[in-house]
Write the structure tokens for this entry.
Amino acid sequence: MRHSAGIAIAWTVGAAAVLAPILLSVHLARKQSTDGEFRLLRGYASDVLRRSEGTGDQSGVAIDTLENDGLTPCSPREIDVMRRIAITSSYLQAVGRTAQGQLICSSLGTDQSIDLGPPTYISRTGTLFRTNVRLPLTGGEPVIVLEREGFGVIVDPALPIDIMTESPDVAIADFAPANRRIITQRGHIDAHWLGTGSGRESDFIDRGMLVAVVRSARFDVAAVAAAPMIDVQRKVREVAFTFVPIGLFCGLALAGAVLYISRISFSMAAQLRSAARRDEFFLEYQPVVDLATRTWVGAEALVRWRRGGETVRPDLFIPAAEESGVISLITERVLVHVARDLPALLRERPAFHVSVNLSATDLQSPATLDRLRRLLASSGAPPGNLVVEATERGFLQGSAAREVVSSIRDLGVDVAIDDFGTGYSSLSCLETLDVTFLKIDKSFVETVGTDGATSHVVQHIIEMAHALNLRMVAEGVETEEQAGFLARRGVSFAQGWLFGKPMPIAMLLGQLAASAPAEEPVSSPG
Ligand code: C2E
Ligand code: CA
Ligand code: CA
């Protein structure tokens, strides 16, 4: 379960790590190049519009000039004026007079009237537009003729749209927004773009085309520029090509790392499980002394793992065992070994106490009670010779632990709080728990004789234990100074290298046999 969950998590993390940067960069690339393309198209449309407005301005000036010159219509002097206007107006090819749909004279000559044909449309301002007019005067090339108040202006249709574009795919046109008529165009312009959007400028995407429209504030004229999204798509592809390998690499590396870690923890759990099955766990016993007499009155059972040729210390595997739940198998092995060792110990010292460590998980489980009962039954040991050690952490998780502890007490087995002072237990917690012993953690004992702030803490712990009527076992006693300090303050028992390191059961039995049995102590812990 844990392993496959680990793999699933690894792949999910990996996939997210691969996809997130790719999707993000593709999104940004798309947005950036779309914005850039729109900016370009608006620029083209503005250029076209400037030329169209220029044409409108010059036409207006030309017509006003001719209207106000007071010369005889189509007189040689007026033709002269027309020529001057045509030469100086960059957007106008020619100017002339009109009547009944005919160009009657112009800057190009006066020979004869030319029929202009019907107007293509009439603009909002009343100008008649004829797009696509072929005049013999202009060499038969189609031109645009604007007619107003009896005057005609001839415009080269190529002029407004004669702008440079980055790509030949760009289509441009100028048009009359009022009736959506195209005046002149290059490339394909969809008729319904002409009515889309409002305001001075607008841009939109229509069926794979990016479209920008710019409208004149002064004339009934607007310009449109459009380009296929292909350019955008090409840029997005380029970005994707750079980011996909980077994303893939990061994602795979991350997934690999997660997989690696989950495999390590999995294999640790699997190894511990098989170690329990193959009985690779064994015990060492560390003596507990009566501080007043220095006699060995008990021992703490400490688990070891014989893996291959080496012995593994519990600090290296107990945390992993607790996390994976394998701890309960290990506890079971420990209790089986204690059951086997107890009879010999009790033969040597009938009042000897052995303590065993229970983890938080063990305290949650009623199976622990069954195991303790089995231990007592199979060893024949009185329950008073057994002590279980539980850390403060074990009591934090709900009421189940309290019930298990009180059931243990009901069996007649003593309970000690281990590593006291390192956890979070409060006084009230201690008062309501039915415990017998309090083990002062090694880290506090170490401060004895030093002048650090924590050196006062051990004093408080001792006072508190006295107030609660708890007996104390000091852990990690390494010096005579520490032993003396603790003894003077009424700590009954101690454990530490000063008295004895953890040792195999045979050595413990040998040492006990070699020393004369002490006077039976009234009560002693494991
Ligand atoms: P603990 O229960 O606090 O055990 C005391 C630890 O302090 C032991 O380390 C012991 O060897 C060490 N010690 C004792 N006297 C001295 C001393 O004077 N100086 C120094 N520096 N160290 C001293 P060990 O055996 O490595 O055990 C480490 C921890 O592993 C234990 O701490 C306990 O939390 C856990 N443990 C050991 N056996 C079991 C077990 O059977 N079940 C469970 N659940 N945990 C266990
Ligand atoms: Ca312990
Ligand atoms: Ca401890």
